[in-house]
Structure formats: C-alpha cells, structure tokens
C-alpha cells in the first residue's frame, strides 16, 4: 500500500468544516490510483477558528483518511525537528509538502528557508533513504500582492526551492517540484487572499497530482470534478 503524508501550514491543515486540498487529492487518487493507498501522519485534526487551536474533527466528509503533518502557523523551521521521528513512526512513501509562506513572513529569509528545506530532506532520508517528496512553491498570496519586499522574498525562495529540488533529486529518493497552477487567482481561489476555497483546493490538489502523474505515473491527469 502506498503511503502519502501531507505536510504543511494553515493551507494544508484547513479549518473546521472545510474539505482541504488533502481531501481533493484523496478523491482524485481514489478515482485514478488503481491500487491501494492511504494518508498517514501523526495528526488528524483541523484548526478551530473559534478557539484558535487544532482541535476540530469537523471534516466535511467523515470517510476521509485525515492523517497529516500540518499546523496553523507552522513552516519548514517547525517541521525540520519533527520529520525524522515522524517518518520513522508513520513510514510514508511520499511526502506532499506545502510550506514556506509562514517562514518568509515571520521567521527566516529566502536563503535561510532554503537551508531548512535541505535539512528537512536530509532528516527524512536519514530514516528512509528511499522516501519520495513533492514540494509545492509558495503560491500567490495577499501579502505578496500588497508588500513588494515580501514578494521579492517569495520569488527568491521559489527560485532557490527549484534549485534545491534539482540538486537533491536522486534516482532512489526522487524529489519533484509541483507547478504553481497557472490560473491560481487569490481573488477567486481563496476566501481571504491566502487560504484556498473550493476552487483553490482543487487547483492545489491538481498541482500535486500533475507532478506525480507526469514524473512517476501515479494516478492520472487531474480531473476538475474530482
């Protein structure tokens, strides 16, 4: 059975009552995978905005395998110390990673964030030398639109991320860079300029699905209705 682990920040954990891109990808893989798979990870909850804590189990679909490693306000810097133990315990085959916005916004600059990407990859591989990863760049967001200096950092990090993926990709432990959806629009694909709404969730799921299908033959091309 192929074991996927979503890793991310608020856009990945999602909020109470949301589906999340994790769910949209699960739907897609159920329709196209052609073999057994599951989602794994040490956490299961959604973020509850009423308590500002990750305590909600109010998933829109209760049948969804909701395991993940994601947290509201968490970034690469938070995941580096965790990833080795999590890979050891939950044995993911593929890490689906969407991180970076929080780091650049509050903790590290582009170069420092890229160094944390390298540390994350090394920590995962130290436990499982064959683990594969799909990494999503920082996607369009309202802060980058409003703050030119932050937009420069996002662009710089995304360029460094692409270089890091190319540098660290190995035949036995493949790294893929998921494409930022060309049509992604913060005004129509998010509910607040950052967090994806239904159309945004589908586009982010499609980015991961496209990378895995084109490079590894996992699943199939993403269908908009899934």
Strand-residue fraction? 5-15%
Tell me the span between the first and last alpha carbons.
Answer: 22 Å
Count of the domains: 1
Cα-based radius of gyration, to the nearest Å = 16 Å
One letter per element, helices H and strands E, the order comes to EHHEEEEHEHHEHHEH
Q: Count the E strands.
A: 8
Percent range of helical residues = 40-55%
Structure in words:
The structure is a single chain. By secondary structure, the chain is α/β, with parallel strands linked by helices. The protein has one domain (2-216): Rossmann fold, CATH 3.40.50.1110. It has eight helices and eight strands. The strands form two sheets. Strands 1, 2, 5, 6, 7 and 8 form a six-stranded parallel sheet that branches. Strands 3-4 form a two-stranded antiparallel ribbon. A hairpin with a 4-residue loop joins strand 3 and strand 4. The model has no long low-confidence stretch (mean pLDDT 95).
Question: Which terms summarize this structure?
Answer:
6-stranded parallel sheet; 14% strand; Rossmann fold; single chain; 226 residues; globular
Please render the helix and strand layout as text.
Layout: E1 2-8, H1 10-13, H2 20-32, E2 37-39, E3 46-48, E4 53-56, E5 69-70, H3 76-90, E6 94-98, H4 101-107, H5 110-127, E7 132-136, H6 142-146, H7 148-168, E8 175-177, H8 198-216
Can you describe this structure in just a few lines?
By secondary structure, the chain is of the alpha/beta class. It is 45% helix and 14% strand.
């Amino acid at each position: 059975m192929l074991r996927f682990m979503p890793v991310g920040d608020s856009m990945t954990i999602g909020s109470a009552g949301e589906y999340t891109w994790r769910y949209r990808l699960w739907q897609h893989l159920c329709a196209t995978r052609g073999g057994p798979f599951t989602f794994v990870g040490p956490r299961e909850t959604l973020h509850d905005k009423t308590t500002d804590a990750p305590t909600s189990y109010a998933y829109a679909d209760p049948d969804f395998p909701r395991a993940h490693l994601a947290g509201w306000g968490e970034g690469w810097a938070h995941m580096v110390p965790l990833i080795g133990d999590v890979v050891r315990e939950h044995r993911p085959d593929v890490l689906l990673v969407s991180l970076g916005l929080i780091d650049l916004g509050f903790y590290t600059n582009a170069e420092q964030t890229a160094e944390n990407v390298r540390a994350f990859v090394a920590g995962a591989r130290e436990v499982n030398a064959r683990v594969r990863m799909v990494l999503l760049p920082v996607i369009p967001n309202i802060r980058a639109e409003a703050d030119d200096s932050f937009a420069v950092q996002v662009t710089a990090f995304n360029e460094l991320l692409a270089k890091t993926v190319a540098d660290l990709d190995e035949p036995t432990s493949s790294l893929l860079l998921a494409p930022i959806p060309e049509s992604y629009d913060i005004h129509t694909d998010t509910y607040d300029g950052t967090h994806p709404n239904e159309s945004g969730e589908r586009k982010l799921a499609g980015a991961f699905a496209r990378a895995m299908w084109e490079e590894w033959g996992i699943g199939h091309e993403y269908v908009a209705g899934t």
